[in-house]
Amino acid sequence: MNTLDQRLHASHQIGDHRALVGLYTQAADQADTLNAACFFLTNAYIYALETNHPQRHALHARLVAEGREA
């Protein structure tokens, strides 16, 4: 089984931005600190915006709730 980190790297290598939304969201959910979680959420949000992903609004709301986005 591939680790989350391996799946992130593989998705970056092949340019699968839609998969990166879910993988970065998963990384945020598993992060040890709020700063790390928000870093991963920001990446998920960027890829969600680029791909018009259905989770873009939910990701934005999470960043707003943490004071990281207006």
Describe the structure.
- This protein is mainly α and 70 residues long.
- The chain has one domain (4-65).
- Helices cover 76% and strands 0% of the residues.
- The protein has 4 helices and no strands.
- The chain has helices spanning 4-14, 17-30, 34-51, 56-65.
- It is flat, with a radius of gyration of 12 Å.
- The model has no long low-confidence stretch (mean pLDDT 96).
Helix and strand layout, with pairings?
Layout: H1 4-14, H2 17-30, H3 34-51, H4 56-65
Query: Considering DSSP H and I runs of 4 or more, what fraction of the residues is helical?
Result: over 70%
Shape: flat
Would you tell me the structural class of the helices and strands? Answer: mainly alpha
H/E series: HHHH
Instruction: Provide the number of structural domains.
Output: 1
- Give me the count of strands: 0
Low-confidence parts: none
In summary, what is this structure?
This protein is mostly helical. It has 4 helices and no strands. The N and C termini lie far apart (38 Å).
Keywords for this structure?
flat, single chain, 4 helices, 70 residues, mainly alpha
